[in-house]
Design goal:
Shape: flat
Order of helices and strands: HHHHHHH
Low-confidence stretches: none
Mean pLDDT: 79
Number of domains: 1
Helix content: 55-70%
Number of helices: 7
Strand content: under 5%
Distance between the termini: 35 Å
Largest sheet: none
Length: 186
């Protein structure tokens, strides 16, 4: 595709908001849910939970990488389609625009509004609706986890965005990385 930002501006804004939420960009819904899950995973203090924490952190890195790649190659790069397709390009109808707008609005607002009401110490959001054994009750450990546990996902998300631009626009770095990878496996 490429170059669709001028032809589909509303779709671009909705995909941008959704991609930023998927990446876990601060103050969007994905940021709060991703951090909540990763902190609770780390707070179990077992080998499996620490492994799963770092697996989730690397998944956040790759999510940031491919979300940035999607935005760039579909909307920001040079057009890569025949001119005949221009007559068929249009914004979606109201039955698609309204749900997209509603989902993007929720991606912006719901995480920030509900993060403290559902997560953290002293809340009673779940009440007695979900039985939690005291062995699995690790709100305190997750809330007061170490500095690096809370900020590694954000750091690797930013690194994923930077790595996309480094690997795709610095030809010598990209070629050296490919040749070194091939050399290692041969």
């Amino acid at each position: 595709m490429g170059g669709l930002i001028k032809l589909l501006p509303f779709t671009y804004i909705m995909v941008l908001i959704g991609s930023l939420a998927l990446m876990g960009f601060p103050f969007l819904t994905g940021f709060y849910s991703k951090d909540f899950i990763l902190e609770f995973t780390f707070a179990r203090f077992s080998i499996q939970s620490i492994f799963l924490y770092f697996l989730g952190v690397f998944a956040a890195f790759f999510s940031a990488y491919y979300s940035t790649r999607l935005i760039y190659w579909v909307f920001l790069s040079k057009p890569n389609f025949p001119r005949a397709y221009l007559s068929n390009l249009h914004e979606p109808g109201i039955f698609m625009v309204f749900p997209l707008f509603l989902l993007s609005l929720c991606s912006i607002c719901v995480g920030y509004i509900s993060s403290e009401s559902m997560n953290g110490i002293g809340n009673n959001f779940y009440g007695n609706s979900i039985y939690q054994n005291l062995i699995n009750y690790n709100h305190y450990e997750a809330e007061f986890s170490l500095f690096f546990v809370k900020y590694i996902p954000l750091f690797l998300t930013i690194l994923g965005v930077i790595m996309f631009f480094l690997l795709n626009f610095n030809d010598t770095l990209y070629q050296n990385l490919i040749f070194k990878t091939i050399y290692i496996y041969i």
